[in-house]
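Database export, one record per block. Field names are fixed; values are copied verbatim from the stored entry.
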Amino acid sequence: MTTRHEPGGVSVYPYPARRGEFVTICYNGLLKNSGADQVYLHSGYGSLWRDDQYLRMQRTNMGWEKTMVVDKSDVMHFCFKDSANNWDNNAGLNWSVTVH
């Protein structure tokens, strides 16, 4: 398994993501570079963002990271927000990972 690097300073490990396993999302994008004091991962499954959730990310030497279990075999969409409610949604495209 490898790491998938996405535009906007996002990486996903391991790739491909597999249902029931842990995945780590690392964010080094606009909010981090603007000095955000906290970043949250907003994620959901499918085109309707089912089971969406906001997860507090942790600052590491790699950027802002969150490790979570992916529990659906579907496309997981995600974007980021900071504590001041500024968003990074990849210019409206968000990010997505197909979960196998």
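Remark 1: The first helix runs from residue 30 to 33.
Remark 2: The chain has a mean pLDDT of 94.
End of record.
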